[in-house]
Design goal:
About 70% of the residues lie in helices and about 5% in strands. Helix 9 runs antiparallel to helix 16 and helix 19 runs antiparallel to helix 20. The protein is built from 20 helices and 5 strands. The two termini are about 50 Å apart. It has 2 domains: about 190 residues, no CATH class; about 240 residues, MetI-like fold (Orthogonal Bundle). The strands form 2 sheets. Strands 2-1-3 form a 3-stranded antiparallel β-sheet. It has a two-stranded antiparallel ribbon with strand order 4-5. The longest helix is centred in the middle third of the chain and has 38 residues. It has about 450 residues and is mainly α. The model has no long low-confidence stretch (mean pLDDT about 85).
Length: about 450
């Protein structure tokens, strides 16, 4: 058996042993000592301990090492084997350092109840975790796989090692933070949607109960919140997205004509996209103020933009002003790549400015337009800051979007399982819309 095959077997063995490995924990309350065992797969779905987030990284890295070794990419397999060892080792160290581990409290409490001990949570002063033999064996597997894939370090070997691993040095940090801050929270967020969870205790798996309540229990408050929040989100997307395309396209066309001071105007148009949403919305809150706002004073009106139906106008204006800059830069780049000979040919044929725009400019900007349309739709479906800061839940929740309910229920009301189910439904809705748009992009690209 070759070294690559042995290393691949060890990487796979880590994943298999992980399924059977576990942790142990002991505690003493009122002179009664209890001990429990918990499998690592069950611990993986605990949402109460930070070090557990390192486990998905270790598993993903081990799977990548297995694939690399199978394909005889020893250097790449060695790298991922090292990452798996490091991530799993850090988990074991950091998890053991937690004196009162929340992930282990629930089984400890159950063991104390079985022992007949009456206690309160504050009585559990110290939970001492440990690991089964299989856990240490699992840690050794990717470590040995790394050593097996390491080989010698001759001059030629070092050159090949540098060639194979240099690309991962560039993309590695991005992949690491992507897994930590996006993939892992997304997985746990989906899992939380199937649980009853208050953010403080361990989540209790309840299957589809949250979704049944949201979709079918018409007398439930969360049922009404889902429909009101989702409908307001859709309305905002419909109102806002066309202007998020038209306004930056108009500005890009104007700047493409190279007027005097175009660089200054370009910087001014792009500046709002560099600001935080809090800064933008608080500034516009004063601009639209009923008594001393610039809008009412300048237009000579007395409209209250914080009451329907003017609230939608205010929210669209604020969002478009904030988002225009980055989209405008994309359109400027697309306009610069339009072949000038096509404009010259159109002029020879007697085409005017409008005809050139529809017959030359737009056909050459199909992909940038579709790309920005997709990103704008996804971004506006995730609307939260503008309505939350400007109007909140006022006006009988007339402008409350779905993410406001998600935050309100999870953080303030501690109904995290239900709010996660709301977020999953919103995510599925966005995925369906995006899928249709992507199909349109592929169709246009093929044509």
């Amino acid at each position: 058996m070759t070294r690559s095959k042995i290393a691949a077997f060890l990487a796979l063995a880590f994943i298999v042993l992980f399924c059977f490995a576990g942790v142990t924990a002991t505690t003493t309350v009122k002179d009664t000592t209890v001990a429990i065992e918990m499998g690592l797969p069950k611990l993986l779905f605990s949402l109460s301990s930070g070090p557990i987030l390192l486990i998905p990284i270790a598993l993903i890295a081990a799977a990548a090492a297995f694939i690399a070794f199978i394909q005889d990419e020893k250097n790449v397999g060695m790298l991922f084997g090292f990452v798996a060892t490091l991530a799993f080792g850090l988990f074991m160290v950091l998890f053991a350092m937690e004196e009162k581990n929340s992930a282990l409290y629930t089984p400890i409490a159950e063991a104390l109840d079985v022992a007949g001990v009456k206690f309160k949570k504050r009585d559990v002063k110290l939970i001492t975790p440990g690991y089964s033999i299989l856990t240490y064996v699992a840690l050794l597997c990717p470590a040995i796989a790394t050593v097996v894939g390491y080989g010698d370090l001759s001059k030629d070997r070092r050159h090949i090692l540098k060639r194979d691993l240099l690309p991962y040095a560039y993309v590695g940090p991005h992949i690491f933070f992507f897994i930590i801050f996006f993939v892992t929270p997304a997985i746990y967020g989906v899992y939380a949607a199937f649980t009853k969870w208050d953010l403080f205790n361990e989540p209790v798996f309840i299957g589809l109960e949250n979704f049944k309540t949201l979709l079918f229990d018409s007398g439930n408050t969360y049922y009404k919140q889902l429909r009101n929040g989702l409908w307001n989100t859709i309305k905002f997307v419909v109102f806002c997205v066309p202007f998020c395309i038209i306004v930056p396209l108009s500005l890009a066309l104007a700047l493409n004509a190279r007027p005097k001071g175009n660089k200054v105007f370009q910087a001014l148009y792009y500046l709002p996209s560099l600001m935080s949403i809090s800064t933008v919305t608080l500034t516009w809150r004063y601009v639209f103020n009923v008594q001393y706002g610039i809008v009412n004073k300048f237009l000579g009106i007395e409209a209250n933009f914080f009451l329907p139906p003017y609230t939608w106008i205010m929210l669209v204006i604020v969002t478009v002003w904030w988002c225009t800059g980055s989209t405008m830069v994309i359109y400027q780049s697309a306009l610069a790549s339009v072949p000038q000979d096509q404009y010259e040919a159109a002029s020879v044929d007697g085409a005017g400015t409008i005809q050139k725009f529809f017959n030359v400019t737009l056909p050459n900007m199909t992909y940038p337009l579709m790309y920005t349309l997709v990103t704008a739709v996804v971004a506006q479906f995730n609307i939260y800051g503008q309505p939350d800061i400007l109007v909140g839940f006022s006006n009988a929740e007339a402008n409350a979007v779905l993410l406001q309910y998600v935050y309100e229920n999870s953080v303030k009301k501690q109904v995290a399982g239900m709010s996660s189910a709301m977020a999953v439904i919103l995510g599925l809705f966005i995925m369906c819309i995006t899928f249709v748009q992507m199909r349109m992009m592929v169709k246009n690209a093929n044509e």
